[in-house]
Amino acid sequence: MRIGQGYDAHRFEPGSHLVLGGIEVPHDQGLKAHSDGDVLIHALCDALLGAAGLGDIGRHFPDDDPSYAGIDSRILLRRVMEQLHSKGLQVSNADMTIIAQQPKLAPYLDAMRDCLAGDLQLEEQRINIKATTTEGMGFTGRGEGIAALATVLLEEPRLVD
Question: What CA–CA distance (Å, rounded) separates 113 from 90?
């Protein structure tokens, strides 16, 4: 078994769309980023890469590489999954938390889970996504941006004598 954790945060940017967990969430601002700014998928990618001992998302998909400008983060997640599978690793489960004062995310969490289940090649019940506020404290509490945390468990094939 291998455990990995990931974190990502982006500031809000007017005039952009908000994508979280692979789905578009209605909001008057999006997240400023080189890619589509999906902090949940970025944190998930970091957790997966960390558990596999493969570094972090910035190492694999640098933000100064123009080929990743505006890229759908689900494409990055699928590429991470290809790397895991090439090492014989499988995702056992994933637990994630989105930290945002706004918008209210509860109505979208199931859709995010369903979206990510396909990319992770995992049953929905092995994925958990939560949303919380910081009660007005810090940059997320002031409505300046969104952060996300992810924890994953990977399994290696067992060698039998």
Answer: 18
- Domains and their CATH numbers in the chain: 2-155 (3.30.1330.50)
- HEC sequence for 75-142: HHHHHHHHHHHHCCCEEEEEEEEEECCCCCCHHHHHHHHHHHHHHHCCCHHHEEEEEECCCCCHHHHC
Question: pLDDT, tens digit, for every residue of 41-50?
Answer: 999 999 999 9
List the binding residues for a divalent metal cation: 8, 10, 42
Annotated binding site: 8-10, 34-35, 42, 56-58, 61-65, 132-135, 139, 142
Coil vs helix vs strand at 37:
coil
Each residue of 75-127: pLDDT tens digit?
999 999 999 999 999 999 999 999 999 999 999 999 999 999 999 999 999 99
